Amino acid sequence: MKAFEAVRHYFNLAADELELTDNMRTLLLTAKREVQVQIAVEMDSGELQTLIGYRVQHDNARGPMKGGLRYHEEVDLDEVRSLASLMTWKTAVVNIPYGGAKGGVAVDVRSLSRRELERVTRKFVDEIHDVIGPDTDIPAPDMGTNSEVMAWIMNQHNKYHGFNPGVVTGKPVEHYGIPGREEATGRGVGILSLKTIGRMGHRPQTTRVAIQGFGNVGSHAAKFLHEADCKITAISDVSGAYFCAKGIDVADAMEYSNQHDRSLEGYEKADPISNEELLELDVELLVPAALGGVITAENASRIRAPLIVEAANAPVRPDADQLLYERGVVIVPDILANAGGVTVSYFEWAQNRQHYRWNLDRVRQELERVMTGAFEEVWELSREHNVSHRTAAFMLGIGRVGRATILSGIT
Ligand code: NAD
After folding, report:
1. Do 291 and 315 form a contact (C-beta atoms < 8 A)?
2. Nearest-CA neighbor of 220 among 340, 110, 306?
3. Burial classification of residue 317, based on how many CB atoms lie within 10 Å of its CB (0-12 exposed, 13-18 middle, 19 or more buried)
4. Per-residue pLDDT tens over the stretch 209-248
5. Cα(386) to centroid of ligand 1, in Å?
6. What is the per-residue pLDDT across 296-319, written as a single tens digit (0 to 9) for each?
């Protein structure tokens, strides 16, 4: 099943509960605009490379469209379309005044020098600057992009349209960013993990955690959960996974990764295992925080964690989702679990527009308020309708977007 088919599947489960008509389903699922552009760049070697960039703007019924920018070799239109749609439901679940969008460039960032990365980014903005903007569509970091890339986007966009830092979020704190944005997605994952652990009658002290992906989201989720007394027994990145039954010192692993070009390769304070083995470890909490589609019908029966918190987008395929639900595995779905990033992006954007700043404590406090509020609403809806938390989250998001669409007048 392709990525967008998976989103359509989850959407339809919720739409059935909401008794949406076929016409309304088509309207809500169809993207407003899909842009594909050529990015021709000169590499350091002097050779010419031609890349493909995408921006899909899914829905703006509740506000300007918002979504990350992914640089990864597997990026294609279907994936970007699915992620743009997830953004629409995500911003609605946490009830921030945004729609959904997503972008990406099909490129292996590890093969690019810093100067090449900057050229790719600026050329991409040259191609899409007219369709993004602080009132229309606001990019942010995702896999393979970071605050520095966001600063280049702002700078390049401002050359065409004048000074406006609100065109992009996730910028460096020293350059119109907000404290707490970088940690926000991982922290939100951590906050909801603790809430769910409590709801399931467990304690952090007896919770062993395996985290796949040790980039922005995975490392900050690990740090938060480690500081909350959970035992992080496995972490991983593209180089492989690392297991330690006694628990990994997350600060030490973060320092190691930072000193080794954001890679855990060669980390000797834990035993090497594979990324597949990590998913099947005997732990109380599994946090997929890297790629989508890693939990499938094939490995679902071997997943031992009773709780999965989806830090990554779409890490569980629909057939696996059903199998896990039937087995009673609790899943905190992506459109709720990883909404911390877009929530703090909203704070950043709002403050850019007002030339005003919150400190880190205030950002964390507001993030927790938004995340726990959405969590309670999803849990309540799931109980009321006797549906999975994923279906409940989609119901909450689709309901809000559907009402805004109708109120704005469709014709
Ligand atoms: P990142 O680029 O900072 O980190 C990605 C991590 O995944 C790295 O550790 C990388 O080595 C690892 N990885 C890549 N390929 C892998 C593979 N085949 N097997 C195992 N690990 C692999 O990206 P990120 O921003 O941390 O994003 C991670 C996930 O979280 C993505 O699915 C993204 O869409 C989602 N997400 C990110 C944000 C955000 O604010 N950054 C917000 C919402 C959702």
Report:
1. yes
2. 340
3. buried
4. 999 999 999 999 999 999 999 999 999 999 999 999 999 9
5. 32
6. 999 999 999 999 999 999 999 999
What sign for the dihedral angle of Cα 166, 170, 174, 175?
A: negative
Backbone angles phi, psi at 92, to 5 degrees: -75, -35
Say yes or no to pLDDT of 188 above 80.
Answer: yes
Separation between Cα atoms, residue 155 and residue 255, nearest integer Å: 30
Both tokens of 242, joined, read 């690392």
pTM of the model: 0.96
Assign 410 a pLDDT band (cuts: 50, 70, 90). confident
β-bridge pairing 307-309 and 330-332? parallel
- Residue of the CA atom closest to atom 4 of ligand 1: 215
Give the per-residue pLDDT at 409: 87
**H/E element holding 41?**
strand 33-42
All residues at 6 or more sequence positions from 47 whose CB lies less than 8 Å from its CB, including other chains = none
* Inter-CA distances, 49 with 3, 37, 112, 128, Å: 27, 14, 11, 19
Distance 410 CA to ligand 1 centre (A): 37
Q: Are strands 285-288 and 307-309 parallel, antiparallel or unpaired?
A: parallel
Question: Which residues are marked as active site?
Answer: 102
How many percent of the chain have pLDDT more than 70? Answer: 100
Residue whose CA lies nearest to ligand 1 atom number 30: 312
CA distance linking residue 246 with residue 248, whole number of Å:
7
Q: Whose CA is nearest to atom 19 of ligand 1?
A: 238
Average pLDDT of the residues of the chain: 97
Predicted confidence (pLDDT) per residue in 243-294, tens digit = 999 999 999 999 999 999 999 999 999 999 999 999 999 999 999 999 999 9
| Cα–ligand 1 centroid distance for 241 (angstroms) | 14
Q: How many CA atoms lie within 13 A of 208 on its CB side?
A: 16
Q: Which residues line ligand 1 (CB under 6 A)?
A: 68, 141-144, 185, 212-218, 236-238, 275, 289-291, 311-313, 338, 341
